[in-house]
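Run log, item B.
One chain of 451 residues. Sequence copied directly from the ordering sheet:
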Amino acid sequence: MAFPLDASQPFLLPSQLRRLAEAVRDAGPHDEATWIEWKSTLDLKAPHARVHLVKQTLGFGNRSPDDAAKRAGGYGYLLVGVEPGSVLGVDSVDPSDMEQDLIPYLGPDLVWSAEYVTLDGKSVLILVVNPPKFGDPIHYLRKGLPHPNPAKGARFVHAEHTVFIRKNGRTVPAGPEDWQMLHQRFAAAQNRLEVDLVAAGPHIERIADFPGHVTAHLDRHPRRLLARPTTLGGITRDDRTRAEYEAEVEVHMDELRKAFAQQFHDEMIRHAPAGLSLTLVNRSDRPFQGVRVTATVRAEGRILCPGPVDNNRPDFKVPTPPRAWGTREKPVFPASMLFPGRSHVPMLAGLQDMMCRWKVREVPGGLELEFDPEDVRPRERLVLKHVPLLVTADAETELTVEWTAAGLSAEGSVSGRFVLPVVDSTLQALTGDDLGKWGLPADEQQQAELG
């Protein structure tokens, strides 16, 4: 039977890894493939566990890049603690301790990570091995794996320099055809694209909460408008009923809330730490022409991209309040009064799109960004055009960036993945000083003074 989960995309987020473990539990006994392996359980502190983890990880690292790319984005997955129809779980070991134990056998070139998910109340270990790339070295056993049972007379169960290869549902020592593929994979680097994509900052900020002091102001403002006015002269008879005036106040408050929400949105999308800034790195001494980067960003919450924006905050138009109750006086503000945020000259939409240098489209669980082709000089670090984002994920979660780059002057493509911690916003939006500047009461004292 077919594996009971769509593997057209990689499994990287905690929720995706848990779905992968659930799919193994619900799979058939013969569904293991070149990209996935499972084990019912292991004592992760025992020597035989090390043998199994090292062997399978090396096998995943020695796959053909073209073959690996057909499933799960090229990633390899080893699950321990789950098998079809059963979840036995494992006693977890700290990932840093596991790394220190396995790297002497795996070497520093193979990129992998250890993750845990909870399934049916038990811990399941998932080793995630990064996709193989053209130009990768051959991954071999850096030191002999001690035999789990030395009493049998064999010192090592697998000797130093052994090369393992991943076959369909099994991992075995490399044969002649496997050696040929691995040598060709390594030699292909002579005309391969050698670039990397890194984040310009250490984290990304989630969307800011609407300022509490503005909410409090909006809750207080109707009391000011509905209060009887104090005038120096007599009160001119109002041509509206009280109900009509209260209806005008309610309409004005709706307009005011929308205006503040729009102003907050304008500030949020221009808050640089909330957007994505990427740097394209040429790691070779050769120039590359026409390098096109595609990046897919995903997070536990929703991710929105407002599209291209310029750096100037638009002017803020304060909605005109209704004429005070009981008077025929003109309103405090003339209609269409503007309060500038910054010096702002609107940019024509067509020109703004031309300067954008990226396109965006929605994909399952996130957004796909496609940047215009760039020429990169030898060893250059080229900052790509900033992408404004609105990330709704909670703080202390992660935003995952999976990327691919391809160039006109080099063969093949390069892909990778990194994560950015999501942190709380540092945006100071719609401050109390702003409220005062716009002639609106910002606190209880001002409210009392204004009546």
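Observations after the first pass:
- The chain is about 25% helix and 25% strand.
- Residues 15 and 300 are 8 Å apart (CA to CA).
Flagged for discussion on Thursday.
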